[in-house]
Design goal:
By secondary structure, the protein is an alpha+beta fold. The protein contains eight helices and 13 strands.
Length: 339
């Protein structure tokens, strides 16, 4: 009998509590609305007045006002009241209601992690006149937060077991790159200690390229010593001269004349240096070589000597002079002359 009385008493208490809570929800509805005599309508509302612990809802502050009036919304940091937290604050959203009237909305995303009924204090909106500041306050709102019902008679267990996912490329890539670098390092060390010559440095320095005129003059000197035309090798003699001149012009003027005809070579040379005297000598060398190579022409001894002589003159007259070195040489000579 005593247990039955206690049970009925608990049921009565729960019923009265629920009725009181519902009554509060009716009295303090989920929105409040007010209007002043300047045509300013302001309201504060919640998506709902009752949430489960951890749920997220939107709190909206709205003002309809003349567009020439400045309204200041309340400044909130991380919570509205103790137990109701602000997750995010959204920028103000302005829209046109009618001619001369606009609507400004300020939204907050809120939540609560403690059960109970929370009383949200009135929100203050400031209206800035020319000479004064007026403050409007909204009505009080209530927010009810339900807690989760926990069955203490059952043991704890995982809601969802861990999911086994296959390895992705992003997870494998760092290990793969590290393995490749390690293999490359091992290969380099093997080459360095086993296959590299012991008397050869690891990093060799390359000599600078010889100037084009040095190479050409050395080749002409060698050709002069070989005495090809004197031994009847006239075709080879003229081929060697023209090849030497072609290589020199290509390197000196950055041309490409190895597969060019005589006319093409003369045209290319004329594009870099116009109407120079050595062009006539070059034409004579090339045309005489064409006759000797393709028409079985036998030049006279003085013509052979003249081709070699003109080749020397072409190189010597077109040597690329280093301006800095030339200035240094000139200055040195002037200094010596002054002494």
């Amino acid at each position: 009998m005593a247990n039955k009385i206690i049970t009925n008493k608990n049921f009565l208490i729960k019923t009265i509590t629920a009725f009181t809570f519902l009554l509060c929800m009716v009295v303090f509805t989920q929105s409040s609305f007010a209007q002043d005599n300047k045509g300013i309508n302001y309201s504060v509302k919640l998506d709902t007045n009752v949430i489960v612990i951890g749920d997220q809802i939107k709190l909206q502050l709205s003002v309809e006002q003349p567009k020439d009036i400045k309204i200041g919304f309340p400044v909130l940091s991380d919570s509205i009241v103790n137990g109701v937290e602000i997750i995010n604050q959204f920028p103000q959203d302005t829209s046109i209601v009618s001619e001369g009237m606009i609507k400004v909305d300020k939204n907050f995303l809120i939540t609560s992690f403690e059960g109970g009924v929370y009383k949200l204090k009135p929100f203050e909106l400031q209206v800035y006149d020319e000479n004064s500041i007026k403050v409007f306050r909204s009505d009080t709102l209530l927010l009810g937060v339900h807690t989760m019902q926990i069955d203490t008679t059952k043991a704890n267990f995982d809601i969802v077991m861990p999911i086994e996912t296959p390895l992705s490329l992003a997870e494998i890539a760092p290990w793969l790159v590290g393995a490749l670098l390690f293999i490359a390092l091992i290969g380099f060390l093997i080459w360095y200690f086993r296959f590299r010559k012991k008397d050869q440095p690891l990093f060799t320095t390359t000599k600078p390229d010889e100037p084009a005129h040095i190479i050409a003059l050395r080749k002409l000197d060698e050709l002069k010593k070989e005495k090809l035309w004197q031994s009847g090798k006239i075709k080879m003699f003229h081929s060697e001269i023209t090849d030497t001149i072609r290589l020199y012009l290509d390197k000196r003027y950055n041309l490409s004349t190895q597969e060019s005809t005589t006319d093409e070579i003369l045209e290319a040379v004329n594009s870099v240096e116009v109407n120079n005297d050595w062009h006539r000598n070059l034409r004579e060398i090339l045309e005489r070589a064409d006759l000797a190579k393709f028409a079985k022409f036998q030049p006279l001894p003085d013509e052979n000597e003249r081709s070699l002589k003109y080749a020397y003159q072409i190189v010597e007259n077109t040597i690329l002079v280093d301006k800095e070195k030339d200035e240094e040489t000139t200055n040195t000579k002037e200094t010596e002359d002054n002494k």
